[in-house]
């Protein structure tokens, strides 16, 4: 591949003609690297003289060692500024751990009826992307280019998934930022070919580690081969053990039914392997115990919809006592009367806020 084939729209081209600020999100992965190279070439061809920059959201301990340096080499190659942003309240691993702490607290005080599996990101709840990338990047772009039209470029490709195959080339958010996906229709081969054609190398994790995708060292979207390849790297092993420890503490597997601790058990101590086996057993017990809870007993958007009957409160009391015991929580609201009181207090608070 020598000639670039950039997908664009009338709206994007108009913004480019008006010299809008163009920012390309880069992670260190091949797609964002190719998108940055192709976008700069396209802007040059269109005579764009507005501000341009690369922007990287550093997720901390979950990042590969070469991810930020790859972005820095790309910025140097393009002669562009590299803006690096980070979540002030901690990195992604700390966010996962904080979510588990919050889940425990909410269960203990009966702010949730069941133990919420909210520590890990999921394909349907990718807060790792929304909270630690999208929101932070967009806030920086609004601050830096205040009063300007901003075009936010990403390396999203339709070939990546069925959901992305339905995506548009560009759209506009409520805050006026135009989101542009210039390499939407590129294949993997075209991405690697174009990076090489421009005289750069892709992230070392592709060729050296054998990864098919580069994002976090252990990504909730990774296939089993990538998880194994990551575990084979010395730099990823401290993170591996820390993530498995969270599986142990929470009894929630990293990828739904796939436990990260099963990927490379040889990297764990005998104590951790035994603790992981207990965590898996605890998960089975919890599911069985919580299976007694009916849908009408659950909260909707954080609030109970009605008071429980005495029989329902007795079931919930039994469930909460058993879950509290197997996890070692210090839970409140373990009796029928205290559960009734908690529901009444929450419903009163809900009505007060609505009023």
Description:
- Strands 3-2-1-4-6-5 form a six-stranded mixed beta sheet. Strands 7-8 form a two-stranded antiparallel ribbon.
- It folds into three domains: about 10-115 and about 120-205, Rossmann fold, CATH 3.40.50; about 225-290, no CATH class; about 290-355, no CATH class.
- Helix 10 runs parallel beside helix 11, helix 11 (about 270-290) packs antiparallel against helix 12 and helix 12 (about 310-325) packs across helix 13.
- The chain has helices at about 10-15, 30-45, 65-80, 90-110, 125-145, 160-165, 190-195, 205, 225-230, 235-250, 270-290, 310-325, 335-355, and strands at about 20-25, 50-55, 80-85, 150-155, 170, 180, 300, 305.
- The model has no long low-confidence stretch (mean pLDDT about 95).
- Strand 7 and strand 8 form a beta hairpin.
- It has about 350 residues and is of the alpha/beta class.
- It is globular.
- It contains 13 helices and eight strands.
